[in-house]
């Protein structure tokens, strides 16, 4: 007379009610994006022109590409502060190759491979030696950019071939730049990997409890190593785009990009402590940062003042849900 | 444990001695006491900043906004001096400390009351404070000829054979040493870093202590702001851009664990000195200053590899997240 319970299907994620979708982080970001978009189009008559909107995308595509990989890395509980330095080093390597007479395909290959190599170096230090990634990448940040400075000093590399300019300046169709197309494609790939594959589920699991993952047979170190390689790879790709767009290399190229990419990731709802986040949020955050900087630019607000808005946006967007929850619970001091 | 900590600093000291020895083979005058005093003076600001960062890192937090705070406070003090040269320097220093304290308290409040991770808060205030510098100055510079002679010469005045700047650094080092080893707050800071959960059960208010820590790093940023501007006699929005990572680098080389709870005043001072010696030595031994960045990067990686050996944490956390309750 014993009931043998039928083997139940255990879902790997819970069904979400519609209300949670409405009050989700992504919905908040969409509202903010629409607000900024509306304010911009009211504030400047030049904003709603298709070509202006196309120019706008150049503000975030390169950093956005890095932010996509950084999102996975941060979800897994690690961080990479060396991405901007990787961009600089990869750009310097491409510049050296140009000096040696390399053609466009070789240049792209050198940029991407340099990025991948730098990412692998970070990954080895973090996973093989078990070092904290924030410190390792502060070190490699100085090291990679330092190498660029040793090679270049106060000089600049110029003379990139005509065909190389396509990556940062070319258009795929009408106003859609190659950079934007690449960013959207990469976003799609990263969305699929993070939200639709077992690899992505493992990244979340590692961020929530890496020790439990280790005991569950997840190869934590290998996945983290892959994530560092991906971040390096995306930095290499971003380096190709930036170098192509600017047409020159200085060792100070992409200064401060690491903090902007991390701001994008955090603004996109990825927990800086790891274990939570979505690619959609990061893409929305990238658009929002592009909208803010471009809109303020049309209003002749200097870049440094824009950074105040980005900083405020970051803190306010993070703080709002917390303050809101406390107010509802009535325990805000 | 105590012996082990001393061990670490002795090794760092030995490393510095070897470094000075190596430099002396290329440039014999480097180990000269007069030159070493000069190096110490050159490194004073970095040492002070590293101490401020140290107390933050000890509590498992990080303050990325220190260099922006330095820039903002330095600009405020320089503009005050340009507009009212009659304000005596000690009053200006108090103002610098107060402005820095307010900026630090904003960081601390957000970390304490809203529970936002410090890296996010200070990433935001990093850009906000530097942007605010532009707003208060309108993008203009304050040049040497706008500053009063007292403003510039205060830190250069010699007293018992050392410039005032070195004395200020020594005073700050002494204060931090006393605070970290002899006061309740100092010991609480270590306790929080070693085990925040246990600290709660021991009756330590973790949030409040973190607030205090950010106030300290803010005040240090403010003090360094005055010292930096009066040393390099120019105040602009670009002052100390990216310097926050140098400060953290000095801490890391000094053996302060980014995971919190491990580190000492001596370590932070030696870590800063290590970087200071390298930057002072490169020009005199005819190595291009462009090498400095790569060398300090390698030093950071080497330091963290060596430090990681003794740092593996034993034991498990049984009670999680009590500090959040």
Helical percent range of chain B?
over 70%
Helix count from the secondary structure assignment of chain B:
13
- Major sheet description of chain A: 2 strands, antiparallel
Average pLDDT for all residues of chain B: 89
The proportion of residues in beta strands of chain A is under 5%
CATH topology of chain B, what is it called? ABC transporter involved in vitamin B12 uptake, BtuC
Instruction: Give the helix/strand class of chain B.
Output: mainly alpha
Walk me through this protein's architecture.
The complex is a heterodimer of chains A (333) and B (325). Chain A is mainly α and 333 residues long. Chain A has helices spanning 18-22, 25-43, 50-57, 61-75, 83-99, 104-128, 133-152, 166-169, 178-196, 198-208, 210-215, 220-246, 257-267, 279-298, 303-329; strands at residues 171-173, 176-177. Chain A has a two-stranded antiparallel ribbon. In chain A, a hairpin with a 2-residue loop joins strand 1 and strand 2. In chain A, helix 4 packs parallel to helix 9 and helix 5 packs across helix 12 (220-246). By secondary structure, chain B is mainly alpha-helical. Chain B has helices at residues 2-26, 33-58, 66-83, 89-113, 118-137, 149-153, 164-182, 184-194, 196-201, 206-232, 243-253, 265-284, 292-308; strands spanning 158-159, 162-163. In chain B, strands 1-2 form a two-stranded antiparallel sheet. The longest helix of chain B has 27 residues, at 206-232. Chain B is globular. Chains A and B meet through helix 7, helix 13 and helix 15 of A and helix 5, helix 11 and helix 13 of B.
């Amino acid at each position: 007379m014993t009931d043998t319970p039928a083997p139940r299907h255990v879902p790997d994620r819970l069904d979400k009610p519609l209300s949670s979708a409405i009050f989700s982080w992504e919905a908040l970001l969409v509202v903010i994006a629409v607000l900024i978009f509306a304010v911009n189009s009211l504030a400047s008559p030049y904003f709603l022109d298709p070509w202006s909107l196309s120019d706008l995308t150049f503000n975030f595509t390169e950093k956005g590409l890095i932010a996509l990989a950084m999102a996975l890395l941060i979800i897994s509980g690690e961080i990479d502060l060396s991405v901007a330095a990787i961009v600089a080093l990869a750009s310097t390597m491409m510049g050296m190759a140009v000096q040696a007479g390399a053609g466009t395909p070789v240049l792209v290959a050198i940029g991407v491979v340099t990025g991948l190599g730098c990412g692998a170096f970070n990954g080895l230090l973090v996973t093989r030696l078990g070092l904290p990634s924030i410190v390792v990448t502060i070190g490699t940040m100085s090291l990679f950019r330092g190498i660029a400075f040793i090679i270049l000093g106060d000089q600049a590399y110029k003379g990139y071939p005509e065909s190389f300019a396509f990556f940062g300046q070319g258009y795929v169709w009408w106003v859609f730049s190659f950079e934007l197309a690449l960013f959207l494609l990469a976003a799609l790939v990263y969305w699929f990997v993070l939200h639709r594959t077992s690899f992505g589920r493992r990244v979340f699991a590692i961020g929530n409890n890496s020790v439990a993952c280790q005991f569950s047979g997840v190869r934590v170190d290998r996945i983290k190593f892959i994530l560092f390689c991906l971040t390096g790879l995306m930095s290499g790709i971003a380096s190709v785009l930036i170098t192509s767009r600017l047409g020159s290399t200085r060792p100070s190229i992409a200064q401060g990009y690491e903090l902007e990419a991390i701001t994008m990731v955090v603004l996109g709802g990825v927990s800086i402590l790891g274990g939570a986040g979505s690619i959609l949020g990061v893409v929305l955050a990238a658009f929002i940062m592009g909208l803010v900087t471009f809109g303020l630019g049309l209003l002749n607000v200097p870049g440094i003042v824009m950074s105040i808005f980005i900083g405020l946006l970051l803190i306010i967007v993070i703080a709002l849900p917390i303050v809101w929850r406390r107010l509802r619970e009535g325990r805000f001091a | 444990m105590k012996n082990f900590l001393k061990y670490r600093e002795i090794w760092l000291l030995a490393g510095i001695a070897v470094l000075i020895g190596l430099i002396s083979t290329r440039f014999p005058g480097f180990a000269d006491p007069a030159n070493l005093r000069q190096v110490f003076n050159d490194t004073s600001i970095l040492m002070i900043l590293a101490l401020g960062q140290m107390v933050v890192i000890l509590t498992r937090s990080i303050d990325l906004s220190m260099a922006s705070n330095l820039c903002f406070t330095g600009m405020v003090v320089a503009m005050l001096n340009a507009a009212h040269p009659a304000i005596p320097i000690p009053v200006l220093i108090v103002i610098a400390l107060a402005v820095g304290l307010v900026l630090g308290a904003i960081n601390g409040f957000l970390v304490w009351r809203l529970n936002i991770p410090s890296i996010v808060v200070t990433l935001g205030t990093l850009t906000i404070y530097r942007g605010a510098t532009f707003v208060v100055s309108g993008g203009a510079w304050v040049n040497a000829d706008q500053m009063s002679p007292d403003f510039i010469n205060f830190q250069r005045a010699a007293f018992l054979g050392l410039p005032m700047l070195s004395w200020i650094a020594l005073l700050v080092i002494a204060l931090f040493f006393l605070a970290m080893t002899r006061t309740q707050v100092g010991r609480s800071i270590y306790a929080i870093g070693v085990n925040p959960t246990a600290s709660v059960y021991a009756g330590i208010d973790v949030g409040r202590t973190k607030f205090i820590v950010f106030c300290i790093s803010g005040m240090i940023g403010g003090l360094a702001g005055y010292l930096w501007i009066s040393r390099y006699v120019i105040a602009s929005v670009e002052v100390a851009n990216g310097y926050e990572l140098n400060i953290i680098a000095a801490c890391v080389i000094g053996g302060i664990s980014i995971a919190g709870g491990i580190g000492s005043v001596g370590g932070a001072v030696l870590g800063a000195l290590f970087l200071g010696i390298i930057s002072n030595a490169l020009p005199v031994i005819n190595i291009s200053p462009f090498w400095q960045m790569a060398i300090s990067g390698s030093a950071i990686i080497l330091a963290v590899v060596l430090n990681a050996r003794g740092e593996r944490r034993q034991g498990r956390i049984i009670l999680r997240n009590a500090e959040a309750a």
